[in-house]
Amino acid sequence: MNYSELFKDSNEEVAERYELVVERIKEYIDNENDTSEYADYFHKVANFYIMLSKWYEYDESNFESADVDELAKWNNQLYEDVKPDNYKTSYANPVYATKILGVEYGPLLCFLYTEIRSGIVYATEKRLKELILYGELFVQVLCMFEDEMPTVNELKETLYYFVNDYVTDFVDYRVSEILDPKLSFATDIVMESDLSDIRYLYRYGEYISDNEIELARFLGDMSDEAIESMAYTYTHGYEEGFKVAGIDLTKKKSVNIRYSVGQERIVKAAVNQFEKMGLKPVIYRAAIERVNRKLTIRSGYCSTSVNKQYDYDHRMDDALFIDKAFVERKIDATRNAYESRKQLAKEYAGPAVIEMFGEKPFEPVNNDENMRLSEKQQKLSVYMTSELSKLINIYIPQSEYSFTIIAYPLPEIGDNFKEIFDAIVKINTLDNEAYKKVQQIIIDELDKAVSVKVVGCGDNCTDMTVMMHDLANPSKETNFENCTADVNIPVGEVFTSPKLTGTYGVLNVSEVYLNELKYKNLKITFKDGKIAEYTCDNFETEEENRAYIKENVMFNRETLPIGEFAIGTNTTAYVLANEFDIVYKLPILIAEKMGPHFAVGDTCYSRSEEIRLYNPDGKEIVAKDNECSLLRDTDEDNAYFNCHTDITIPYDELKAITSLHADGTEVDIIRDGRFVLEGCDMLNEPFKKA
User: How is 483-515 classified by DSSP, letter by letter?
Assistant: First the structure.
């Protein structure tokens, strides 16, 4: 069945409800009797909903006859209200909504409008039931204000019960689009559109900026051979990941492809290559309802954000409804959704991700008007994340799937976009074999270490001592994985899961971007491998700085362990990044290869520790656990943290990485930002050419 036919019957069943809600909203717009202080809000939201209804009714024949300017006009109208220039006077802005509507009603009505804005997707995908639900909620709230001014608690309860009443529906659909290839909205766009005609971009309903248009045109001018080659780097890495982990790919039937709008030529080639492996694409959009979202993180296909401050302002809107009852309801809904699709889950091979980077760095502004989770809600959120992770792992065990990630720049990265893009393609295809040999030299030395010392230089006050695991049989065992370009592209790191006990010190980075948020002078202190103190210089008060890190790095936990210690070896990427002045625009995927890094959260082997892995030299990788993950059979809640954030120290902020032996011998791996072990000269060559 074609995607366009999936909702035909259900849409016909609710057609009368749709007509009634549209009619009621139009009546309100035409009636000019509302002179209350809330009239402007209700009229603007009502007009927005009517625009959604017209976009919903914009059928295939309209699309085929429309020119690019008409489609661009539609896209602009749908997103105009939250664009940076207009956001200051938008009711989607908590600051403005609170100023105009009051400190009690403003945040609630702002939340309502923000959720109604998700109707852009429902209208685009012809999901009429969801579009109606938000229309009926709006009418219900409108009537409350028309009949008699509701109390704040009455309004809050109306919104709360709406979320709780429909959390099962939202979660069930989300799980379905994650697992079921039949939900092929995006797949159909990629595989059936004329990708030389950029009108296809507007079929998504995503915000379409110059980034998406210029990227689509840029890739459209590339040869078929170049596109196939880029797709092969990505799909081959995916296939290799299964081989390295010893997982049978032939038992799988679907692959989740995540990409950025504008990259469709690469995706189309990848779909065809994956199909030769017996895998059908599952392509789902980044979640839109707050019920299914996590802070500002977007997992799934998406375009560049229309306004990152808007995303940031609403990152904790779930403060309106997170309580014990909601949490249990969402967990039950997730369990039922996976249970009804357990065969699809069993056949799921894992994600294949094409990241984008190059946007103007975003520094958020903290606004007091934004919703925030209470301390109790933070704990509930952590509990819910943990329970959902355990639940999903039952149906999709991490030991039975793999992944791959690759990244390409956006046109916004600068005037030399083409040169940067070409350079990234080369970085993504560096010689695996050459790196494998050099990285083995580094591993051989590190396997002699009792601990490793990492020290910063200049203003960087990093001073970390990292404890290594004991090797029972050094001739057959190793602590470090020799990481080449399979699941993590490009090549260039050796990594381990260090012992927590005895690992201590200060990790400091002058400037770093984590999950698209900027951190200035990030400083984290560790005791026995766990975060003890943390701060940065983003905001004026220490309270704000600590809250920023706790929310977005620690995900509201009181502490996190070091899950990974690694040494990045991709000096080619580092030199290129400095040549084009894009160091702080690179994604973690590439940045982590450009110096030593520490990951806070789970180990790289989380929930798949029992899989036996070997380096190319035949030695088994034995450092896959730490004192936290070893609790998995007795105390799972304290074994896993469901996050893993890499924090990299660039070479130019690095004085030394030193291997410390039991007999007191000290051997430098890096000194003054250069590799100094014999046999590692290859890694310093890019510096000489800079």
Answer: E-SSSBSS--EEEE--EEEEEEEEEEEEEEEET
Expressed in angstroms, the distance from the first to the final Cα of the chain is 55
**Whether the Cβ atoms of residue 145 and residue 36 lie closer than 8 Å to each other:** yes
- Output b/e per residue, 449-487; b: 16+ Cβ within 10 A: bbbbbbbbbeebebebbbbbbebeeeeebbbbbbbbbbb
Concatenate the DSSP letters of all residues of 21-38 into one string: HHHHHHHHHH-----STT
Cα angle: 456, vertex 554, 350; to 5 degrees:
100
Q: Which residues contact 470 (CB under 8 A, 6 or more apart)?
A: none
Q: Are the C-beta atoms of 467 and 503 separated by less than 8 Å?
A: yes
Rounded CA-CA distance 13/18 in Å is 10
**Average pLDDT of 369-392?**
95
Residue 626: both structure tokens together: 């730490």
pTM of the model as a whole: 0.92
Supply angle C-alpha 263, 267, 271, rounded to 5: 175
Give the C-alpha separation, 113 to 38, whole Å. Answer: 13
* Burial letters 49-88, b for 16+ CB under 10 A, else e: bebbbebbeeeeeeeeebeeeebbebbeebbebbeeeebe
641 conformational bin, left if phi > 0, alpha if psi -120 to 50, beta if neither:
alpha
Under a CB-based contact definition with an 8 Å cutoff, are residues 589 and 620 in contact?
Answer: no
Backbone dihedral region for residue 102 (phi beyond 0: left; psi -120 to 50: alpha; all else: beta):
left
Tokens of residue 334, six digits: 């997730």
3-state secondary structure 180-249: CCCCCHHHHHHHHCCCCCHHHHHHCCCCCCHHHHHHHHHHHCCCHHHHHHHHHHHHHHHHHHHHHHCCCH
Give dist(CA 179, CA 454) in Å, integer. 43
Q: What proportion of the chain, given as a percentage, has pLDDT over 90?
A: 87
pLDDT at 85 over 50: yes
d(Cα 199, Cα 264) in Å, to the nearest integer?
13
Distance CA 536, CA 550 (A): 11
What pLDDT, on a 0 to 100 scale, did the predictor assign at position 99? 97
Is the separation of the CB atoms in 320 and 111 below 8 Å? yes
The angle formed by the CA atoms of residues 440, 443 and 445, to the nearest 5 degrees, is: 115
How long a stretch of residues is the chain?
Answer: 690
C-beta neighbour count of 665 within 10 angstroms:
11
